[in-house]
Design a protein that fits this description.
- By secondary structure, the protein is α+β, with helices and mostly antiparallel strands.
- The chain folds into two domains: 1-34 and 150-187, FAD/NAD(P)-binding domain, CATH 3.50.50; 36-133, D-Amino Acid Oxidase, Chain A, domain 2.
- It is 33% helix and 29% strand.
- It has helices spanning 2-11, 49-66, 85-96, 106-112, 135-148; strands spanning 16-20, 36-38, 71-73, 76-80, 102-105, 123-127, 131-133, 152-155, 159-165, 168-173, 177-181, 183-186.
- Strands 8-1-12 form a three-stranded parallel β-sheet, with helices on one face.
- It is elongated, with a radius of gyration of 21 Å.
- The termini are close together.
Length: 187
């Protein structure tokens, strides 16, 4: 989120200070690793769906601007018992937001997706727009664009203190003092 915030703020002409205690990408945040799932039929609650739909728009915008593939649509299959949280929640989100989806029986899943062998009492919600994101490439891309738009990014910089200061915020790190900024974001 920090790298994305830095880019979005910088491209709007804001003065941005981006700080990370480590050198991105790193394993000390939630966005490390090769891939992350993205799906619209959010089983946790339907109120997430508009946020995810906006995220899809922003991912496509970022891909268009950079020519990099950051999101790969693979489709998503949520398998479980018909009364289970995963299936009921995904179904609820899909229905409330009129998302393209299919409810599949266990037999349908075994036929259409032979790599899976759900028990006969299970069903699946198939969501064709689901896919995977490439988070480390996304962070790198956001940071490159943030820098291109004037963001002041510092890595391996532990924040020790920050305080309001004339014209913005004064931030002290273990090796630097930065001031006069509109805001700051971690990457």
């Amino acid at each position: 989120m920090g790298s994305a915030a830095a880019w979005h703020l910088a491209r709007r002409g804001r003065r941005v200070l981006g700080l990370d205690r480590f050198e991105p990408p790193h394993q000390f945040g939630s966005s490390h690793g090769a891939t992350r799932i993205i799906r619209e039929a959010y089983f946790e609650h339907p109120f997430y769906v508009p946020l995810v739909q906006r995220a899809y728009e922003l991912w496509m915008e970022l891909e268009k601007e950079t020519g990099r593939q950051l999101l790969l649509r693979t489709g998503g299959l949520m398998i479980g018992e018909p009364i289970g949280i995963l299936v009921k929640g995904a179904q609820r989100s899909a229905e409330e937001h009129r998302l393209v989806h299919k409810l599949l029986s266990a037999k349908d899943v075994r036929r259409e997706f032979p790599m899976f062998a759900p028990a006969d009492n299970m069903v699946a919600v198939w969501e064709p727009r689901a896919g995977i994101l490439f988070p480390e490439l996304a962070i790198k891309t956001h940071l490159e664009l943030a820098t291109r738009h004037g963001a002041d990014l510092h890595f391996n910089a532990q924040v020790l203190q920050w305080e309001p200061h004339t014209g913005g915020v004064l931030v002290r790190t273990g090796s630097n003092v930065c001031g006069g900024l509109d805001g700051f974001a971690g990457s």
